[in-house]
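ASSEMBLY PREDICTION REQUEST
Request ID: AP-0331
Submitted by: J.K., bench scientist
Number of chains: two
Total residues: 671
Priority: normal
Notes: Please return the full assembly, not individual chains.
Input sequences:
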Amino acid sequence: MFESATEALALLFTLKGSLYLCLGVGIGLVFGAIPGLGGTTAIALLIPLTFGMQPAEAITLIGGVMGSVAFGGSISAILLNTPGIAPNAATCFDGFPLAQQGKAGMAIGAAATASSLGGILGVAILMAVIPIAKEIVLLFGPPEFFALAILGLGAIALSTGGKFLRGLIAGGVGLALAFVGLDAVNGGDRFTGDVEYLLDGVRLVPTLTGVFAIAEMINLTLKGGRVVSGDGASMKISRVSDGIVSVFRNVPILLRGSAIGAFIGAIPGVGGTVASFLSYASTVQASKNPESFGTGNIQGVIAPESANNAKDGGALIPTLAFGIPGSAEMAIFLGVLILHGLEPGPMMLVEHEGVVFSLIVAVASAAILASIIGLILARWLSLITLVDVHILAPTVVAVALVGVYALHNSMGDVAVAMIFGIIGFLMIRYDYPRITAVIALVLGELAERSYHQSMMIGDGSYSIFYGRPISAVLLIATVLIILSPSIRGWLRNRKREA
Amino acid sequence: MADSAGMNSPHSDKMILNLLPPLIVSAFAVIFLTWSYTYDQKAQQVPVLVGWSLIVLCVLDLVAATGTALGNGIKTFFTGTIVGEASGEAVAAQPMRKVLVAMVWPVAFVVLVYFVGFLISIPIYVFTFVVFQGRKSVKVGAWSAVAATAFTWIVFSQLMQYEVFPGLLFGGQ
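STATUS: Completed
Returned structure:
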């Protein structure tokens, strides 16, 4: 094991190894930062490039992309309130208000540090868990998946704070949209109106690009000025070092975010979006000052960023140990492994230990390298918040829509992004939380499918959900999450009265 | 007459504006629920549950928007500040004409893309937006248009080798 780890490190320090890693990191950062692209597209595009490479070299290149995409997405989330990839949406909550206050450098510094440390912790968890991965993953059946999806939806209640009612309504609309397309249980089509494009359902990337990027640009057009509020002449970009220091002042949040990220990442089909939001929601819940979130609290950047990068380590557990990809990105990565003659499964660690360690080293190094690049560029990147929105808005709209089109070469995707751009803007205008709709859209299909599968396993009895320990614990956690704002208010009132 | 005057007061205008979004969502929920019932028992089970829940929530939202004692009670129950979302009030203060213009720009861009493709639409859209909406000089508009188009062409067409939609008039499908 030690020998394999040393060999993997040695490869990284060769000219070829470091070149592939840097190339992967560069591509990952760019694909992460441009809304609509993301890691899945980047890895898919790189597959032909890896044909002539040794397996360890190919894995280093792909690992570079995987380790850096998440941080690339957080840059646009912080500077433009436009998440590069879906899991970065949680970073917008506090990252963008910080940018508006002229603290973009601080937010990017915190995101970079939390990302790299989260990535390293995720990989450490992966190494620790690989020997017992099989037992852990097999503990999760449909009832647990259902409970986990419900837990994710429960986080909606928390992330909408006091705007609970409209948050739930937006979540309900998101769920309704999640049912569009082929029915996961019967295979028939639902709510498509015989439109062929909708058979695949409401696609996430165009929807996200519309709800966040397009909507935000319409909003900025109306507000005018710059992304940064106030007088641009007196605005200063805060020190990046403040952001780095803030992460070390919030180590428990970093550790909790990384643990949530690695855990959620390891469960196939749940993904980084849920991990980021659960991490954010748990930080809000644990905070003594929950009202400060959403207004530029640096903890609101650290929590989702650490979870977002740690999830890669977790997601590799089912991919490497069982050949079960946890996400689209992992499914394509699985293809890369098979292409290079590596068969994922329990024997992979035994037969291809060196390759596994190359991947682990590449993902961890990529997270660090991406953060270093991000920290170096943070001050210059932050200047984008000082650009006039009337120059920024059309450019972002144009580039985001080209990215959306490029994903499936579909003008239907562009139209969907535009429609959701208008809907997203109206949601901002009338105070309907956009993110609850997005979480529900992500989790709706998983929740419905797991529900039907569980009912089949349990012969139609609901005891299947509360009779299994993990499912029961997750459901209790959901109830506590939903009730926590009321409990907190009640406790506060009691304290005041006393 | 007094009623008529009251109906046109800023207060009643604001109330109508407040009622409009929950009414639209309610209409969506009713259509969704009705549609759900057209599917077989298993396929409709979860959508029907979501549809009914959505209708109940919309009714609560509608009552809350009326400003009556019951509505205020519901508001108080669900009150607080949102985490992670800016308030829409600043935007809501904008005149409707301005809002519509801001929404029409990207829609017009998409329509233009549909006919003449991205590489022709981007410079036209960016230039006209910067000059007419942003009221910047022609020089700034031209530079912005060139930069946005060059970025798209270099990154998407050249580096990534993506086929950027050429538009219906130029062979796009």
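REVIEWER COMMENTS: The CA atoms of residues 181 and 201 of chain A lie 4 Å apart.
SIGN-OFF: pending second reviewer
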